[in-house]
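Consider today's protein:

***
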Amino acid sequence: MVGVYLGPRQVEHVTSIRESTAHDYLYNCLSILDTKASALLQYDGIILAAATLGVTLSPRPSIGNLFVIMSLMLSGTSSVLCLPVIWVYWTTTPEFTDEEGEFIDLLGHRNRRTLYYRGSWLIAQLAVFFLVVGVMIKNI
């Protein structure tokens, strides 16, 4: 939960952020998440391609196929979880007049996207694990 501050720690976090321009800080955080999510989507694409090759190149029935298919499903799930992270959010003109409200809104976007990204990353790692195990079982 690092980076997602709730409760009393959020007040301390918010106070420290205010030393810089809060709007700029949070948009930088969102940009970082966008970049990371984009890279993770590419990684998921590689896993999907490798798992597809693993299933199609060895069509004989095997328990390894089950692991490789699980890898396909997990990688697809990871990709879907990345989509809310890269959703475009633009501050509207009226939101600039309410700095406090805009700050809290952007903080909420950052926290949600961080959790989506972390979940997606963990699922992608699980997909690779299933792919490797599936390929190893198929080659035994």
